[in-house]
Design goal:
Elements: E1 51-54, E2 59-75, E3 78-90, E4 95-97, E5 100-107, E6 110-112, E7 115-122, E8 127-129, E9 132-139, E10 144-146, E11 149-151
């Protein structure tokens, strides 16, 4: 019948290559977003958009102040005013006193004011005192939230004014 002869496996001596997330040899996973916290609800990124960062040493305040960005904004400092953008992240050290309107909002720090977004995420370290108008909402265990939540009546209600 069949006669099987044992031959050494040539692959046993080859170095192991890691397979990246897209299955390409040597491909590396993308780094986590800045100020990301383990145990967060989800990591959120807007692909191919510039990210502006307001560092911990920055405080912006003014009457009827509105910050607008057509890209992503990461807030690690303090803002007293409204924020409009495609994607707004309030980092763990960040705070906003005012309304945030964005397609995607992630809160890791403190917000005193309304959140209006298509996608709103409150991480475990977040502290929010205000109402939320959303299409989707995720709240991690440990997040502090004091306010009301309702679904947006239409997309225009959660669309930022970027003009």
């Amino acid at each position: 019948m069949f006669n099987r002869v044992a031959t050494p496996d040539q692959r046993a001596n080859e170095p192991q290559r890691s397979m990246g997330p897209v299955g390409m040899p040597g491909a590396k996973a993308p780094p986590p977003p800045p100020f990301a916290q383990s145990g967060s609800v989800q990591q959120m990124r807007v692909p191919d958009s510039p990210t502006s960062v307001l560092g911990q040493d920055i405080t912006i305040s003014g009457q009827q102040l509105v910050l607008k960005t057509k890209g992503s904004l990461l807030i690690a400092g303090h803002i007293q005013g409204d924020v409009h953008g495609e994607s707004v992240t309030v980092g763990e050290t960040g705070s906003v006193t005012g309304t945030i309107v964005a397609r995607a909002i992630m809160v890791q720090g403190e917000v005193r004011g309304a959140l209006k977004g298509s996608s709103v995420m409150l991480n475990a370290t977040s502290r929010v005192d205000g109402d939320i108008v959303k299409q989707s909402l995720a709240i991690a265990e440990g997040a502090q939230f004091d306010g009301s939540v309702r679904r947006a009546r239409d997309v225009g209600e959660v669309t930022p004014d970027l003009s």
